[in-house]
C-alpha cells in the first residue's frame, strides 16, 4: 500500500515536491525470508537452533546467513524467522538499546526478560502504525537464574513457553517437541531434540536447509 507523506505546506504538494519526497511503502508481503526457529528450555539453560537459509520467495537465495544473535553480553539470545530486512531493523533497535544501557552505567544490566518486553513494544508499535515488522521473534536466556523462553509475533502478541517453533515449520515439529520434551532434560538431550526437529524440517519443509546455527545460554 502506497501512502503520500503529509507535509506542512499550506497547499498540496505539486508533482515536483512529490517526486523529491517520494512515496513510501508498507511491508505487505515478505520477500526475503528466514524459516523456522526452534528453541527449548533444558536443565540450567535455553537452546535455540535455526538454519542459515534466506529464501527469495521459494528460491533458496542466500545459504549462509546468521539468524541467531547474542544479547546482554551473552546472557540472552534472539532469533527470528520471517522478513530478514525487518529482523535487521529490529537488531539495529536492540543495538541502540544495548548502547543506552551501557552508557547509563547505573549498575543494572538488561536481561532476557527486559529485551523480550522491549521487542514486544517495538512490534506492537509498528503494528499500530500499520507497518509491522514481519517476523516471529524468539528470545531466550536466564531470568532470576532460571531458564526463560518467549516469543513475539508481528502484531506484538507475546507468550512464554518451555519449547517453541515459529512459522509454518512449527506445525511440523511442534508434535515432536510435545512428545519428546521433558522438564529437566540435559543439554545433550536438548541438542539431540533440536537437531531431530531440523532434520525433519529439511525433509518436509521446502524452505529449510541442512546447515544450522545452534546457540545456548546456560547458568554456568
Automatic annotation (TrEMBL):
Keyword Phosphoprotein: no
Alphabetized UniProt keyword annotations: Nucleus
Annotated segments matching region Disordered: 1-22
Keyword set includes Nucleus: yes
Matches recorded under CDD domains: proteasome_beta_type_4
Single GO biological process annotation from the record: proteolysis involved in protein catabolic process
Protein name: Proteasome subunit beta
A cellular-component GO term for this protein: proteasome core complex
Pfam families assigned to the protein according to its UniProt record, in alphabetical order: Proteasome (PF00227)
Amino acid at each position: 500500500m502506497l501512502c503520500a507523506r503529509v507535509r506542512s505546506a499550506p497547499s498540496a504538494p505539486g508533482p515536483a515536491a512529490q517526486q523529491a519526497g517520494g512515496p513510501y511503502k508498507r511491508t505487505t508481503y515478505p520477500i526475503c525470508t528466514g524459516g523456522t526457529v526452534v528453541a527449548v528450555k533444558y536443565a540450567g539453560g535455553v537452546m535455540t537452533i535455526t538454519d542459515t537459509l534466506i529464501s527469495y520467495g521459494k528460491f533458496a537465495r542466500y545459504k549462509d546467513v546468521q539468524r541467531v544473535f547474542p544479547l546482554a553480553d551473552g546472557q540472552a539470545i534472539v532469533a527470528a524467522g520471517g522478513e530478514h530486512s525487518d529482523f535487521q531493523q529490529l537488531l539495529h533497535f536492540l543495538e541502540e538499546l544495548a548502547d543506552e544501557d551501557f552508557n547509563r552505567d547505573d549498575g543494572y544490566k538488561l536481561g532476557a526478560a527486559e529485551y523480550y518486553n522491549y521487542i514486544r513494544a517495538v512490534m506492537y508499535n509498528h503494528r499500530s502504525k500499520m507497518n509491522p515488522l514481519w517476523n516471529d521473534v524468539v528470545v531466550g536466556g536466564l531470568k532470576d537464574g532460571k531458564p526463560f523462553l518467549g516469543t513475539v509475533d508481528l502484531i506484538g502478541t507475546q507468550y512464554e513457553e518451555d519449547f517453541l517453533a515459529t512459522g509454518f515449520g512449527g506445525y511440523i515439529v511442534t508434535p515432536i517437541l510435545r512428545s519428546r520434551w521433558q522438564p529437566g532434560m540435559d543439554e545433550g538431550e536438548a541438542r539431540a531434540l533440536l537437531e531431530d526437529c531440523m532434520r525433519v524440517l529439511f525433509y518436509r519443509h521446502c524452505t529449510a536447509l541442512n546447515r544450522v546455527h545452534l546457540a545456548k545460554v546456560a547458568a554456568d
